[in-house]
From TrEMBL:
Gene3D superfamilies for the chain: 3.90.1200.10, Phosphorylase Kinase, domain 1
GO MF assignments: kinase activity
Kinase among keywords: yes
Alphabetic keyword roster: ATP-binding, Kinase, Nucleotide-binding, Transferase
Gene it is expressed from: mtnK
UniProt-listed PANTHER family: METHYLTHIORIBOSE KINASE (PTHR34273:SF2)
Designated name of the protein: S-methyl-5-thioribose kinase
Domain of life: Bacteria
Any Pfam family hit: APH
């Protein structure tokens, strides 16, 4: 293959070109490397190449941002999202060491970055679809969230430094996708929605025709657009986490921007609920199912309660802002995050059922009646989380609501 000049202008790479890029630009491999490459991206936006040197047992991930989303060419995207992702991964690696992959290189011309290969891990959603449980997950993910969220707020950072950070991570194209797909389109009969036919009548009756409910989604949308509280991941679902028994790594922060901290926490909770619902619908009755469902419930509870516990501890240790230390402020501040957590969890449960971007937890339910019941359950729980978000202040409140919605 003739040498390619990667320094002139952007083009979307194929596997052969990713090999050449790894040799000539990254210089990651030894001279005698025997390289193979596979494009492994299964997300909605990017191309992900795994380049392997089996001879020397080395590998690297090269992730390239395309000019349009893979999910639909309607979404024209700024390649700057790759810079944002690279810089944020480096920052998060310093804030939450061991909980994000290491970034080796960022290339603004080819709109790509090279990072640690996590092939010894498994995508969390894939593992959950196999009904695997991870007792350390709640501990790991709450450490990640508390460190990356609280340490990027005005509570801890100097105000000028934080404002510069807000400016650096403005992410309008990706935020617009969230504003449309999470906060707007699922809550009316939008032509772009993709709805399971049996679910549509309930969507109209339960959500679209309820003006009080629709108003609450509008409030949450404006909270998302206007509350530059923390540097949020912005897309923290079970497809954005690599996991193995003793390790959790958060990936894909390209939706990151300064927004409400509860956005990340709510997404984690919602996707644990999806895992629970999927297991309930697809597993055979017996001890294995009981154990898995019990783990998903305990993980939901622990994510909320561990987040609170670690947040309180880190706030006490790291708060620098004088007024943040006033009596009662910490409780007020944390409760606002918990309120947003419940609201976002509710939005996510609804939008993954009604909107354009679904989750395999639900779409892989082959029995139509069970899928219909699963989708209805998610919508009912989602609505209640949004409407009752002011009182969803601990893990038990989530488990109580889940049990209530089963009846």
């Amino acid at each position: 293959m003739s040498k390619i000049d990667f320094t002139k202008e952007y083009f979307t790479m194929k596997e052969e070109e990713a090999i050449e890029y790894s040799k000539t630009v990254l210089k990651f491999f030894q001279e005698d490397a025997e390289l193979t490459c596979k494009e492994i991206g299964d997300g909605n936006l990017n191309y992900v190449f795994r380049v392997i040197d089996k001879k020397n047992n080395k590998s690297v991930i090269v992730k390239q941002a395309g000019p349009v989303a893979r999910i639909s060419d309607e979404f024209k995207l700024s390649p700057d999202r790759n810079r944002i992702e690279s810089e944020i991964l480096k920052l998060q690696y310093s804030l939450a060491p061991g909980l994000v992959p290491e970034v080796y290189h960022y290339d603004p011309i080819m709109n790509c970055c090279a990072m640690e290969d996590l092939s010894d891990h498994e995508i969390l959603r894939t593992a959950l679809l196999k009904h695997k449980s991870f007792p350390l997950f709640a501990d790991h993910i709450t450490t990640y969230m508390v460190n990356t969220l609280l340490l990027t707020t005005d509570v801890v950072m100097g105000h000028k430094e934080k404002k510069e950070s807000v400016k650096s991570f403005i992410n309008p194209e990706l935020c617009e996708i969230s504003e449309d797909l999470v906060y707007t389109e699922p809550f009316f009969d939008c032509p772009r929605n993709d709805i399971f036919e049996a679910t549509k009548p309930l969507a109209k009756e339960l959500l679209w025709d309820d003006k009080k409910f629709i108003l609450e989604t509008a409030k949450l949308k404006f909270e998302f657009m206007n509350n530059a509280q923390s540097l949020v991941h912005g897309d923290l679902h079970s497809g954005s986490v690599f996991i193995k028994e003793d390790s959790t790594k958060v990936i894909d922060p390209e939706f990151a921007f300064y927004g409400p901290a509860g956005y990340d926490v709510g997404n984690v909770v919602a996707h644990l609920i999806f895992a629970m619902v999927s297991g309930q619908a697809t597993m055979e009755e017996g001890a294995e199912k009981e154990n898995y469902i019990n783990w998903t419930k305990s993980a939901i509870k622990d994510v909320v309660d561990m987040f609170k516990e670690k947040f309180n501890k880190l706030f006490h240790e790291k708060a620098t802002e004088k007024v943040a230390k006033y009596e009662g402020f910490k409780e007020y501040y944390l409760n606002s995050i918990l309120r947003d957590t419940a609201g976002v969890a509710g939005l996510e449960l609804c939008r993954r059922i009604l909107g354009l971007a679904h989750v395999k937890d639900i779409t892989s339910i082959e029995d139509k009646e069970k899928r219909t019941e699963a989708e209805k359950f998610c919508l009912v729980v989602g609505k209640k989380l949004i409407m009752n978000r002011e009182v969803m202040l601990n893990g038990d409140s989530y488990l109580e609501l889940i049990e209530e919605c089963k009846r």
